[in-house]
Design goal:
Oligomer: single chain
Number of domains: 1
CATH topology: ABC transporter involved in vitamin B12 uptake, BtuC
Number of helices: 14
Distance between the termini: 27 Å
Strand content: under 5%
């Protein structure tokens, strides 16, 4: 029975992913209905419903799935890298650098493409700054990396506040939506999909080493794991995954923090199972959250980051309570 559990969990997550896509395709100010979505997917009857589905809903749903998968996978890796259960993809200041660059582009009136490019460039700049400062005299540790990331993140936060307070009123609304996470204008290209597949493949290849590293550096080194090299791979992979997610949809919280803990409570502690499960559950979670964001106050839309926070806070508190009661 224990051997069948991973297959049962992955099968359930695949079904949840398919269901989430259907819900995301059908949700919004114009309710298409699941039966209508299925008839359009397999029949493609010309008309307004086809235009809404193929030009708006499907690209947005794909963006939501890829973003959620990137954040969940990054959260799993970050918690191993820092050996901190509270670590999330944004803890090292990557989102702060992306936000400063994106808000500056919005302030200058740049188009959506340039805003995304600026966000990715800002994220890469933050990655280089944090790693350069944490490395220092050629030696670095998880604690030093974490402290450096927190300080750099605080600095980016100060710059964000300066941009918000000095911006014109018509720009502040767009800035706030970007900061809270928004999928309304998001699209996913082959680059984002390739980054997700590449990160997933690399980390699955290193899954056994991650299982050992999660128990401590000394034990991993004693079992033949090149700890410094593996940690560098984790940092680079996590940073690129997070930068890609922020570029697509802005700063969306709690996905990378909550999803790994939910899966561990379900028994997915082996990274050979945890990594693909996080990709499926993270993508499904963000698609369902975006469906709520489009439907709660339709025809108005909420930033999806607001919905993930509303769901994520009580879920994380429940996880903490169950973890504590289990230990007792």
């Amino acid at each position: 029975m224990r051997q069948r559990h991973p297959l049962v969990l992955l099968s359930a997550l695949l079904l949840l992913t398919a269901f989430s896509f259907l819900v995301s395709f059908s949700s919004g100010s114009a309710n298409l209905g699941i039966s209508t979505v299925l008839s359009q997917l397999f029949g493609q009857e010309p008309g307004l419903q086809q235009q809404i589905l193929f030009e708006l809903r499907i690209p947005r749903s794909l963006a939501g799935f890829v973003t959620g998968a990137l954040l969940a996978l990054s959260g799993v890796l970050m918690q191993v890298l820092l050996r901190n259960p509270l670590a999330d993809p944004y803890i090292l200041g990557i989102s702060g650098g992306a936000a400063v660059a994106a808000l500056a582009a919005i302030l200058l009136g740049a188009s959506a493409v340039w805003i995304s490019n600026a966000a990715f460039a800002g994220a890469l700049l933050s990655i280089l700054i944090v790693f350069g400062l944490a490395r220092g005299d050629s030696t670095w540790s998880s604690t030093r990396l974490l402290l450096t990331g927190v300080v750099v993140s605080a600095g980016w936060g100060a710059l964000i506040n300066i941009l918000l307070t000095t911006s014109a009123n018509n720009s502040v609304y767009s800035m706030l939506f970007w900061l809270m996470g928004d999928l309304s204008q998001s699209r996913v290209g082959w680059i984002s999909a390739s980054i997700l597949l590449g990160g997933l493949s690399l980390m699955l290849w290193q899954a056994r080493a991650l299982n050992v590293l999660a128990r401590g550096d000394l034990q991993a080194a004693a079992l033949g794991v090149e700890v410094s090299r593996l940690k560098l791979q984790l940092y680079v992979c996590t940073s690129v995954l997070t930068a890609c997610a922020v570029t697509i949809a802005g700063s969306i919280g709690f996905v990378g923090l909550v999803i790994p803990h939910m899966l561990r409570l379900l028994g997915a502690r082996d990274h050979r199972l945890l990594i693909p499960a996080a990709v499926l559950l993270g993508g499904s979670f963000l698609m369902l959250a975006d469906s709520l964001a489009r439907s709660i106050v339709a025809p108005l839309q909420l930033p999806v980051g607001v919905v993930t926070a509303i769901i994520g806070v009580p879920v994380f508190l429940l996880i903490l309570r169950r973890t504590r009661s289990g230990r007792e």
